[in-house]
Give the backbone structure.
Amino acid sequence: MIARTIAGRAVAMRQPGALFSVLVLAGGFAACDDFALFISPGPIPPAHSSPIAPRSIVVGEFVSATFVVPEIVFDLSARSTGNLLVIVRWDRRHGDIDLILGSSVFALPAAHRSIGDAALAGTLRVVDGQNYRLTVAGARGPVPFTLTTSIE
């Protein structure tokens, strides 16, 4: 399967050769009783999706939220072109969280994994009027956190 990027998202493209191979193999099994082959022309669903709808935020907004496994998602609309700076702060006694901006994952380095207050900062080049997804993810929760954004 070939993947290409459209608007910052990986999109799977079906190869005609792979489809042909499936049909040839299916033809070989067609003589078996009760054999059925279903081929869906629709899109392939994402591997996982958040059970909670994304929350819309604006640049400069102070967000106080609680992370619940597996993730909490924010949609942000850039009001100018520049470098988006996102800072997430939390108390590590509640657990560890990661910040995902586009295709980049920002996590605490092992050397900074002491108990107490923690902060992650991530940057992403943004264009005026475009929408961007910010995700706070982790394996254990709930984790109260704050999130701030700015464009430089």
Remarks:
- The first strand starts at residue 2 and ends at 6.
- The chain is about 10% helix and 45% strand.
- The radius of gyration is 21 Å.
- Residues 55-151 form a domain with the Jelly Rolls fold (CATH 2.60.120.380).
